[in-house]
Design goal:
Elements: H1 3-11, H2 22-46, H3 71-93, H4 101-110, H5 113-128, H6 132-153, H7 156-167, H8 174-190, H9 196-226, E1 229-231, H10 242-254, E2 261-263, H11 280-291, H12 303-319, H13 325-330, H14 338-369, H15 378-393, H16 397-401, H17 406-422, E3 425-428, E4 440-445, E5 451-460, E6 470-475, E7 486-493, H18 505-522, H19 538-549, H20 555-561, H21 573-582, H22 587-605, H23 609-613, H24 618-628, H25 646-649, H26 659-676, H27 682-693, H28 701-709, H29 716-721
Parallel strand pairs: 5-7
Antiparallel strand pairs: 1-2, 3-4, 4-5, 6-7
Helix pairs in contact: 1-6, 2-3, 2-9, 3-4, 3-5, 3-6, 3-7, 6-9, 7-8, 9-12, 14-15, 14-22, 17-20, 18-19, 19-26, 27-28
Length: about 725
């Protein structure tokens, strides 16, 4: 089956009544078949050639034609897509010929084209430009998509054919062997070998998990609105620039608060505005609006969802024969077990906490020097850290931003670096329609001039876009299906109301990071869609993206894009030296807030069903978990607290948030190795592309890394990258 379809089905939202005995199981199966038949009949009239999803788009590389797509097209296309896919799967499962790789596995890869087309467009638009209608449809589709996936993965006839091919795989090699082994493993891990009662329970659990994750994501949108901080008096905004104040005024006016100022809450606990606001009372209001969202402080309460999701995942793991959800998830990861990942994180804690204490002492000294009669609190840290940074490095972050003008960062920074490393170029295509304002489309040309695919840059924030930054695709690469990739990057940069938009250091770094994900999809060169691009384990997928971040500070790259927005002059060496010296400032805080969240994730997802169901107080559980892991420092809260931890309770990172650090070990080691081999050269880029970026999941991840590096990674480069140790000098 298509990678995109499986990913959507796993993440989709669900709710079905419980069934536990064989009679109920058969009844549920009969009901599902009846509903499927009724769906086919009801959609035949609604779904026809006038629907833009009826056939593949005629735009270049099958890019979605947003001049034709309307909201009312999605639902009938989904229903027709599920019905069509069900027919295709039934034909494979009941094929009278003996099962072979071609007539079973390859045919599954070819199936579901319509469903993939509509899924890839709808879920991307819902995340990037959603509204009440798309969120309602997501909720409606979730149980249907989950049931559709279960109907495939729990189909005994289909599994028998898959198993037969798997049992006779000795004649296969390369991608074909990898695909068969992964497909078989996927069926087993979905419950294909369970008895009927257990399968019925798995369906029930999958349904509820999908519904709750969709609810959690929808609630995050509501919470962002409910926790917006409205400021009446502009004097309280002292510390912000005139442009920033105007942005807040415009946001308030758009929300119906004319004459006031609206501070929106972003996805993490820490809020960017806290580094600038001089008013301590307002800083506290902003931090508390962020940290306590979803805890019942407003209408939307995510606490019941957190508890129930932890319980359901534990139950599902137990049904499938695992001790806990973490054991289940990490079985197919590079780490292998929760213990290995937890040990990696815990081993870092002493050094990180030591750095945090040193940073805290410097911040407290700054507070005391200014006559502040208080101990540093979470809402103080960023504000006074900036003061320490400015004093320690004489660095003005606002002055630095003037050298990070948005268009230059994109064209002369990110695109330039990718050209220097891989030889690719980005040609803007204004003729290809998009789903919203301020989205750019580029045709990506290879070093030989041939087209690789399309790249969409959706970099600015808008109402209806979820928080954070991410990569996804409208079309995934596949040689079997003759498909070139159509890739999408999202970010949440606040566009200036007028004049140039300036980026922070972190926003520039994030842009390089997401381009790394984009190239993982763009350079994919595999036969089968299920193995394409970023279809790798969670603790490997962040490696190619994190690797690209460090090119931002390559001297050649930085000198090419870090130019003053008015004069065009390159960043002065004195300022550049300060930027380089300060880049690891506050890294103890950054690392600890991440590790705290990653360990919190494991605390939820290594529970037994009984332990998960006994959680009474989410805040108390969270506090105890942080204490237990030695990461409970009041002034440094987790990057994500439980009630807005989207990665694990709405996204695909449950028991997997550790992956960023695991991947950073690979990225730091790989980048250091590349510097030793000459740095930013086409030869180095080609090797990285050939051994890593083009392979998708067609080869074992560690073997991919060894093919590139010549050995497994070590953790030394990670500590150096984060400034938590001193590099050895030969």
């Amino acid at each position: 089956m298509r990678k995109s379809l499986i990913a959507v089905a796993i993440g989709a939202a669900l709710t079905v009544a419980a069934c536990s005995d064989k009679e109920a199981t058969q009844q549920a199966t009969d009901t599902a078949q009846t509903e499927q038949s009724q769906t086919q009949q009801s959609t035949s009239a609604e779904f026809n050639q006038s629907n833009p999803f009826y056939a593949e788009s005629t735009l270049p590389y099958h890019a979605p034609d947003f001049t034709k797509i309307k909201f009312e097209h999605y639902k009938p296309a989904f229903e027709a897509g599920m019905a069509e896919h069900a027919k295709e799967i039934e034909a494979i499962a009941t094929n009278p010929e003996a099962p072979t790789f071609e007539n079973t596995i390859v045919e599954m890869e070819r199936s579901g084209a319509l469903l993939s087309r509509v899924s890839s467009v709808f879920y991307n638009v819902a995340g990037s430009n959603g509204n009440d209608d798309t969120r309602a449809l997501q909720g409606e589709l979730a149980p249907k998509m989950a049931a559709h996936r279960d109907n495939i993965m729990l189909n005994p006839e289909l599994f028998a054919r898959v198993k037969a091919v798997y049992d006779n795989r000795d004649s296969l090699e390369g991608e074909a062997l990898r695909l068969v082994e992964d497909t078989y493993k996927g069926f087993v891990r979905s419950g294909a070998e369970l008895n009927d009662d257990a399968k019925a329970k798995i369906r029930e659990v999958n349904s509820e998990i999908s519904s709750l994750t969709t609810d959690f994501q929808r609630n995050l949108m509501n919470l962002a609105k409910e926790n917006t901080v409205i400021v009446d008096d502009v004097a309280q905004l002292a510390g912000l620039s005139d442009a920033e104040i105007k942005q807040l005024a415009d946001a308030a006016a758009a929300a119906g608060h004319e004459g006031k100022y609206a501070i929106s809450i972003t996805n993490t606990t820490r809020q960017p505005v806290l580094s600038s606001l001089e008013n301590r009372e307002l800083r506290q209001r902003v931090w508390e609006a962020s940290a306590y969202r979803g805890t019942g402080n407003t209408e939307t309460d995510n606490r019941p969802l957190v508890k129930r999701l932890a319980q359901l995942r534990a139950e599902k793991a137990q049904l499938l024969g695992y001790d806990n959800w973490g054991d289940y998830v990490l079985e197919t990861s590079m780490a292998g077990t929760p213990e290995a990942a937890q040990n990696m994180l815990r081993d870092l804690v002493p050094a990180v906490v030591s750095n945090v204490e040193a940073e805290k002492a410097e911040i407290q000294a700054m507070i005391d020097a200014e006559g502040g009669d208080f101990e540093v609190q979470p809402w103080d840290w960023a504000y006074y850290a900036e003061k320490v940074r400015a004093e320690k490095y004489a660095l003005d972050s606002e002055e630095v931003k003037k050298y990070f003008e948005f268009n230059r960062v994109v064209e002369d920074g990110v695109f330039f670096a990718m050209n220097q490393l891989f030889g690719i170029t980005f040609v803007q295509r204004d003729d290809i329609p998009t789903y919203g304002d301020d989205i750019r489309v580029y045709e990506v040309k290879d070093v030989n001039g041939e087209t690789l695919g399309l790249f969409y840059g959706d970099w600015f924030t808008r109402d209806g876009k979820r928080g954070g930054a991410w990569m996804s695709s409208f079309v995934s690469q596949s040689n079997l299906l003759d498909k070139k990739p159509v890739i999408l990057n999202n970010q949440n940069i606040k566009k200036a109301s007028e004049g140039p938009t300036f980026l922070s250091f972190d926003e520039v770094s994030t842009m390089f990071h997401e381009m790394g994900h984009a190239l993982h999809g763009m350079f994919s060169d595999v036969m089968y869609p299920s193995l394409a691009g970023t279809s790798v384990s969670r603790d490997y997928v962040e490696f190619p993206s994190t690797f690209q971040e460090d090119w931002m500070l390559n001297e050649k790259v930085l000198n090419n894009f870090a130019k003053h927005y008015e004069t065009g002059e390159a960043m002065p060496k004195e300022l550049l030296d300060k930027v380089m010296a300060a880049k690891n400032f506050n890294m103890g805080y950054d690392t600890l807030e991440y590790i705290a969240s990653a360990l919190l994730d494991f605390e939820y997802h290594t529970l037994s069903p009984e332990a998960a169901s006994s959680i009474d107080d989410i805040a108390a559980f969270e506090s105890a978990a942080l204490e237990r892991n030695g990461v409970a420092i009041d002034a440094v809260p987790p990057r994500y607290k439980s009630t807005f931890f989207a990665h694990v309770f709405a996204g695909g990172y449950s028991a997997g948030y550790y992956a960023y650090m695991w991947s950073e070990i690979l990225a730091a080691d790989a980048f250091k190795y590349m510097q030793e081999q000459g740095g930013l050269t086409l030869e180095n880029g080609q090797k990285f592309r050939d051994t890593i970026l083009s392979k998708g999941n067609s080869k074992d991840p560690m073997q991919q890394y060894i093919d590139f590096r010549g050995q497994e990674p070590t953790g030394e480069a990670l500590l150096e990258r984060r400034g938590l140790t001193t590099p050895k000098i030969d």
